[in-house]
Amino acid sequence: MPDHTHVLIGLKPNVALSDLVGDIKTGSTNHINKNRWVVGRFCWQEGFGAFSYGHSQLKGVSNYIRDQVRHHARRTFRQEYLQVLKKFEIEHDERYIFKPLEEK
């Protein structure tokens, strides 16, 4: 998708999620800018969302990620993300909620 990405990983308990996400953002930002894949400087928005899944759910999650175009034809990523936060009563800070590209 042009406005967000999903990463499905197996995370060991001795790795801090925020450190891993920071490393992914830093490495990908440097790679994108070094290769000039975008006009100007690329950077990620602040914050991230992380959700855990059981091993038995991996196929469904993989299918969901693979079918992003179809999912977001019905509703935007932002709409879907906010719906998940509300459904599971996840506290969040509006400063870190995904902003559509046109609102930057």
Total domain units: 1
Number of strands: 0
Helix fraction, binned, reads: 40-55%
- The low-pLDDT segments are none
Task: Based on the model shown, name its key terms.
104 residues; mainly alpha; globular
Q: Can you give me a brief rundown of this structure?
A:
This protein has helices at residues 17-34, 58-66, 68-74, 77-87. It is an all-alpha fold. The chain is globular, with a radius of gyration of 15 Å.
Topology of helices and strands:
Blueprint lengths: L16 H18 L23 H9 L1 H7 L2 H11 L17
Task: Report on this structure.
- By secondary structure, the protein is mainly α.
- The chain has one domain (17-103).
- The protein has helices at residues 17-34, 58-66, 68-74, 77-87.
- The longest helix is centred in the N-terminal third of the chain and has 18 residues, at 17-34.
- The protein is globular, with a radius of gyration of 15 Å.
